[in-house]
Amino acid sequence: MIKTIKKLALLFIALTGLLSCNKWLEATSSTQVSDATLFSSRSGFQDALCGVYISMGEEAEYGAMWSWYVNELAYGPYAQQFSPLFTAIQNHEWDDNNVNSLISQMWKAGYYSIANINKVLYELDAKPDVVSDRIEWNLMKGELLALRAYIHFDMMRMFGLVQLSDADYEKYTVPYVTAYDKEPTPQRTYRETLALLEDDLNTAVSLLEDDPIRGKASEAWLINANADGFWNARDKRMNYFAAKALKARVLLFRYELDAAAALAQEVITEATAAGACQWVDADAMTKATSNDVIDWTFSSEQLFSLEVTGLQSLTDAYIFNTLGSGSSSILIDKAVADLSLFNTATIPASEDIRGPALMLKFYGNQYRPYKYYNNSSYYAGYRNRIPMIKLSEMYLILAEVAAEKKDQDKLFQALIDVRSHRGIQDPSPINCDPNFISPNYWFSGLLMEIVREFNGENVGYFAARRISPKAHAWINIDNNWANRIISLTPYCYPTDELSYGRHQDL
Whose CB among 179, 218, 223, 367 lies 3.0–4.6 Å from 332's, allowing a Cys bridge? Predict the structure, then answer.
């Protein structure tokens, strides 16, 4: 991170107006513009904000490695393939040279995006009159602060702990960088780091009070300040509801259970009332006659998603490639899926759209996950999306808190709320999953539900590390896979960070 900050130069491409951030930048020439020119106009700040999302969508960050590639292979139910690299990731060989190289790229990508965020924040504060509309200025700053918290929070957990006990607060975690300069940011304790992160989030939520996603923007503001449509498609950017949902994640990390559940419920109530999200129609999806019209990532349920214009080429290389000698593909192990995730004796596989009923396609004796299906004829509204926070996660936070508190009624209701929208005709856990017959098995059953729901989204990676130590007993779960989950450890700090004196407290 120190070398990255020292070498970093902010490079954004200027352009004029389309609606989504990737499209906002992709249609223009590759002419690079100076800071002075970029930050001299409202449109320049818009381009810079879009540039932050572009950097987050790179392969080394959420475009692949942080979502459906490295993080997913590290814990998920995937088949061993030809690739020694895949095998090393699945076996958690973080000191393997090739794996360590990927981890270093992931670290640098995160801090590169954070540096970009800090640069735009610096310019926004230094030139408050360039973006003259106060609501728009607030929205920009709110987005940036929440994004800074979002990325740091994922880095804290990838390279550190996934849930804190009282004894953990004085341990050191990854640097929380709040300034755009060449000076290295010191490591701080979890207590100090969370104070910075939560200050960013609380300020962001306050600044995003007038977010159009809440449905409260005045007609005059929409006509004038949003005449170019820049503040449309709010689910494709960080927004008010997503920032609050991120706060719920952080509260769960702190093991502040009641507060996490209360905020998750608040997000559910407010976001659905505002029409910011709605459940997919599972029945319509199963009846669709073409892959090109199916909402594979459940985009209508996304509180925040990232648009990655290069997603098809990435997934073609790692998921939808043709297997051959020396090549590999990310495929779900059929035996593991049939036993652990979609066992017809327990989970009704013929109904659940997250499994072989729709999203898992039988291929070469394994299952190919179709969540990131993309091609040029795919419906544009569904294309190129990486889910960052979904409505269903708030329900599963409610479920996890209920499991912690041994509240069967609330646990079952939260699971029913999700399963009833996944095509399962009788979604009650007690009727179709032996993991929920006894509290001794609840955490293993809950983890399997999270894996089904968040395949390829990195939510499962953090849940596997957080929940597996509490799953003292397992039913219908492949032992080899369970052992891989239990043995999952944080990534090692990159070698050059350790050489600069960083230390990893675990």
Answer: 367
